[in-house]
């Protein structure tokens, strides 16, 4: 990583290397892949290439400090107080940071000799997937570290284990997949950092996965990753004799979970975040949505990568950060088991029906801070008084929420389970916290003042002593002023002198000579003042300082004791945090359903797909802001087990609403299967196993793929993988190439979906020729979007009706978009010519028509050349497109024409 990296250790006896630099070089050599934050006083300093990277990334000044082996050492520094801010920016830019602290007092180092260097050690590695600080985390987004491991099944095949760990909350889920499903699983998990064995990282078949990951990818060497040590590591971490209590895991899952813990130990260096035991995410129970479909449907972020404008942003009514994170997780991984889906929907249904209960719960939840993240910071020794307060407030909110649920009585199982977890909480901890913590809390514990008056009598006594001492000092100042006759005498304090007496220069001269010489000992002469100390003042100072020191020690002890109690209760606290998040989601989805008039879908094991009055939640919200109503549309793709699902082939004008209609039906599936109500009057959905979409066109030039290539790769994935239980959304496939190639591909793709995949599908196209497929394919029906023409203007009605579009209205849309009138006029002329040509010679190739004949306006059109039917007929032929039989026929026709001419 370093071009001009310092050597691992300086050459022995090299006088040009200072002892400090030697220490730096040694620590840096042990952490070659991280930027080293090297603590020096109130700064973290960076040297060499680290300094250059940091100064570029952070926009801070690059300076030089001394020389190393005869060369200037580039350096830059960040103040410790603001380190979080800089860390955040470095992590966001994809760097890792090793934080190196002084591990002894400088005074200690001095004892070893004047030239000895203060001992320093890396106390922590900060990486994108292992951060815990509030300032570094997004509240409503999980921060997932994904560990991968694999196990060979045969010569060719591997099984992959995935462990998704959010250290900031302790959530720890494992799953297993084959190679084909790996990309889909990673897309579902959306990790910030991926760690994986070197061998997996270097596998050429997977190279694209790591190259395209939106996460930092960290390969680790093989040692310590064997299955036995992985299992031992998990058992040790959770203090259990066997993993059976946590469920049954595959060997690849165990290896992945072990690797995750290995990385936690490596980055946290001894500190142990309170993790939940690993649980199976059950990949087979999740609706599979590949990365392209996820991106196309803009589930958790838009194509531009923003949260705003995504489905998640449109449906998020949660009031707690943990609820927000769980909502994103559920949206990313909807279920397939109708029973599990119904259990979630039962909770939502109760809270839709009971508005008062819902409001009460949401009010209670709003005051609940982020319990899980506060607890983790405390456990890692990075917590402050406000984290203790978060535990206090979170637990009180938990009691309130739990009590209102329990009062309700008969609850659906999901809510009953959550209420029970809350009822099990011990009131003693939050009460102790409430008794101990003051109203206004400092950010850092070392600032003191966070323990409430009355909590500890000895602390109160010391505080009184401190306040009293100040009074005593004030009295002393008055007495000295009276005794010396110097009315401007002041007692002041600074770090150098401690408490001292300050008088104007002239009075000071008196003090040095006169009767006060005995009392006032000269310390300092300023420009216009003199400073003295006295024995009395020294005694007072010692008392005040020791009182402050002892008071802080008592406060820190109280902090440690309360923190230990919170950590001791971490299992219950984490369970409460999970319960609150579940209640938040149920209430939030109920709020959303009530607000938008959404209905509860029926999800079962059939192949039904019947949506009545469906809407697109994101487009609807956008239109509502402009005061425009969304037109609801039905969709029926229901099939039978024996035959498979139905296909709707949708033609319609540009801007008619085809894409919106396609996507809304896919989004309704996602919402229904995550346990939500749906934006429709009614919906009956046979649980979908995989959702595919190929919508819009996106270049992927970074991967060296053209628009058309991307389109074909995605279409191939669909045709190869969709099952009879899948839902497929295809929007305008084949438009990225020549018309006839595109039409033929679209045609055969529909036939394949109908005959082989037999899935439920929506297929939008501008190839009107495809509508004739309905005559041959029994489970395919045509639908179109209605338009009206009014005063020569096209009006989009956005209503889906059975039938076929008569035209695309592309030119009208082009005019609405503001194409110059001359271009529109010319396009109309060409269109009518083309349509005439099409009527007269339906087989003619569009490419061969005089589409692009130069027509500079307003120059008069040149006189039409004399028609030569034979030449035209030859021009209309395309040998590449003809079968031998067609070519022979054409030859005979030409011969006949020549004879006739
Ligand atoms: N059901 C609807 N009700 C009201 N407005 C709608 C509806 N559907 C679509 N629209 C509006 O029409 C616009 C165009 O819709 P959409 O992109 O779905 O059209 P399209 O037929 O796919 O167009 P193209 O063929 O040009 O891609 C949307 O941005 C929205 O404003």
UniProtKB/TrEMBL annotation:
PROSITE patterns: DNA_MISMATCH_REPAIR_2. One of its GO terms (biological process) is mismatch repair. This is DNA mismatch repair protein MutS. The lineage of its organism: Bacteria, Pseudomonadati, Pseudomonadota, Alphaproteobacteria, Hyphomicrobiales. It comes from Salinarimonas soli. It comes from the Bacteria. Signal peptide: none annotated. ATP binds at residues 652-659. InterPro entries: DNA_mismatch_repair_MutS, DNA_mismatch_repair_MutS-lik_N, DNA_mismatch_repair_MutS/MSH, DNA_mismatch_repair_MutS_C, DNA_mismatch_repair_MutS_clamp, DNA_mismatch_repair_MutS_core, DNA_mismatch_repair_MutS_N, DNA_mismatch_repair_MutS_sf. Gene3D superfamilies: 1.10.1420.10, 6.10.140.430, DNA repair protein MutS, domain I, MutS, connector domain, P-loop containing nucleotide triphosphate hydrolases. Residues 726-742 form the DNA mismatch repair proteins mutS family domain. The keyword DNA damage applies.
